[in-house]
Amino acid sequence: MDPLVTFCLRMGDTTLILGQQTAAWCGHAPVLEEDIAFANMGLDLIGQTQLWYEIAAQAEGQGRTPDDLAFFRTERQFLNAQLVERPNVDFAHALMRQYLFDAWHLPIQEALCESGHQAIRELAQKSVKEVRYHIDRSRDLIVRLGDGSEESHAMMQGALDALWPYAADLMAIDAVEQALVGIGMLPPLDRVACAFEAETAVTLDRATLAIPGNGHARTGGRTGIHTETMGYILAEMQQIPRSFPDARW
Questions:
Q1: pTM higher than the cut 0.90
Q2: For labeling, which of 141, 180, 221, 247 is most exposed (least CB within 10 Å)?
């Protein structure tokens, strides 16, 4: 597959699946403000997905649309990071998943503002404002709940312990990114991991949360290897388009 198409699918699939997971909190969040905030963030992420899929579809040149890419690919054809497909165990897990994603998403969007590919550069320049709001919100909640009551601290630490190994999948760099850096479409992305480490070190310390020790990094999502929850997410997300593929409304 063309490296440009692969990179755009990795980015778009990651925002799509997190948007789907985030939207599941609509009507279920513990307070109304968070219910609305999660729904709005999900809309932002799915809007970004549409832009990534448009670039991918144009580069691919096979006549597929963003809807085709979202609803008519199989699990192994999705290239999202495994972190975003982790289940909505509880609100602590949802917040921690969002924060770890945001801590990666902001620096990569800031880096992509320097992309040599015009459409990617314009996408990043447009979405980076939304992403800054996202991390401001998730960072604040992580600190408040981590440094809150004994119960909230324990729940946030448990969520961090469970999700931290999956953060590695966000920052994995392989021949795809290296090829795009080599031709100037992408700026060097090494700084993204550095920014992630700096952000999480400061915020998690303020939240009195301990970063887990070096364990087994959970990677593979960006090459189509997913966790047991991915099939369930796609089954729910793709049910209507696959049942009525010619429907229009």
A1: yes
A2: 247
